[in-house]
Amino acid sequence: MLDFLGDLERTHMCGALRVSDSGKKAVLMGWVNRRRDLGNLIFIDIRDRSGITQIVFDAESNPGLHEKARELRHEYVIAVLGTVKQRDSKTINKNLATGEVELVAQELRILNQSKQPPFLPSDTVLPNEEMRLKYRYIDLRREAMQRNIILRHNIAIAIRDNLSAQGFLEIETPFMTRSTPEGARDYLVPSRVQPGSFYALPQSPQLFKQILMIAGFDKYFQIVRCFRDEDLRADRQPEFTQIDLEMSYPQPERVWEVVEEFLKAAFKIAGHQIKTPFVRMTYDEAIRRYGSDKPDMRLPAMTDVRDTFTAENLEALGLSPRVPILALRIPKVGDLSRKERDEIKPMLNAKGKVKVFEDFKRLEKTFPQAASKIRQQCAAASDDLIVIVAGDGKLPEHKSEGGVKPEVKQHDEAVYTAAGFLRLALGQKYAERHRAFARTGDPATDFRFLWVTDFPMFEYDEEGQRWAAAHHPFTAPHEQDMDKLESDPGAVRALAYDAVLNGTELGSGSIRIHRQDIQRKIFHALGMTDEEARERFGFFLEALEYGTPPHGGIALGLDRIVMILAGADSLREVIPFPKTARAVDLMVDAPTPVSEAQLKELGIRIRND
Ligand code: ASP
Question: In whole angstroms, what is the distance from residue 40 CA to residue 59 CA?
Fold first, then answer.
């Protein structure tokens, strides 16, 4: 028999009772987390989002109630009225916030029963992820998931409050819109009233936020869902949440300050006092020192050691001083076995473009002078692992001799990035030895933020045989590089920047083009004719002609920030209802086919070829 709530009112959350409440009456409502039946005594742990309290049903003092408590099963929803009692010292549970008290039941109402769930929120061993996603409502009842979702809320509120205090207005932009320029595939929504026409879900509010600047709102932000139909990688979601912002008249530094401020607030709410301003590094330096545009600075940078070798050394090694020779240092790895050394080369997926010298001891024997200089230059301790990665001596074809700055020629980039990849792979492999990725409690060591700046404006799309926007086509080029737009696109730098944390890109942004003539030039450089540009972005090009203030902004991934702060290892741990790697929602079972009638109404026929 199920009970009704009647006039019973909840007086406390299940995790709220303390010794100071002893002797008081309390009404708790929640789920049966666990039950232990000891014959005359039944112990029930009642659970809600605040925690757990132990309830006691005693056959001697209340046989009727005890009998009723015997009906309770996992995940039944109950209301219990009782008296808070201090536990005697032997039965105190130190692992529970309410562990010094228990509730002695006087009344029990069973508000709802539950089928035996496929797994229990109290289970210590998790079921497989498919099961968790299918029964997400059970999974979300688990303490870890409740903690993550509550943390997500706290972070979002902290960011909203902070941005609002910095003078930003939260303004909504449409979800049913037209194709936006982030470079992924669009999710389309068919129009019923205009058969054959489609809305696109926004890959980001990029053009709307720029139009809000044209419209005079000056500082905009939005914590907003974005939709991108991409081939899913492990750490991607087809819909995800961005902290999106745009402001008028900023230098890049001003945008960075705004972001640093709201990140400070977000990290603070999660218990970490981070320091600002963040390190700033040009793309060129990031590539040369870390072989990546999102450097993980928890490991030592790479060192170019080509000047440690004599001409004869280089000849003997088959290397050229015209390409980089990079020393990677991974601290405290100690001596490697022959087998471990042999595993290094295959870790690198560089298609023969680089040479790897993984046996530094041998190098020390053959080239003692060079080796000792290398040790010095990269400040290596005796138990550090040193691996040398070098270009194979040949200069491959290249699209631009300019590079971002004269230092990084395009043909060198392959060597830098291969070395950067190996640096990270070795860092991961030997993480237990160097412990650089383990949290220390010191935010300055645990969270290595930086701004990567001055990205290249274009990257060469080998498949399409053309230059493509490295960020998006509304990003402003450096003024000094304007004259290279046509002659040497690869050498044009953009006023684009990324916020990076521990080797992860948190977000990217840029100062935008605010002049129509320059926007046209960029479209041209991207191989778009006036006509094509007008067709795709005509409304925007027109808007640019009506007094557009200089403006710029950025977007950061909220899911990723919460994931890092929750210490979770997947975005799915911090998104309430995520999709699988195949873009499926297992709980509601979406996507699904729709009825013939619905399709007909939309003027759509499914092709089977
Ligand atoms: N719209 C860009 C993105 O989603 C961010 C920006 O440039 O503000 O990546």
Answer: 5
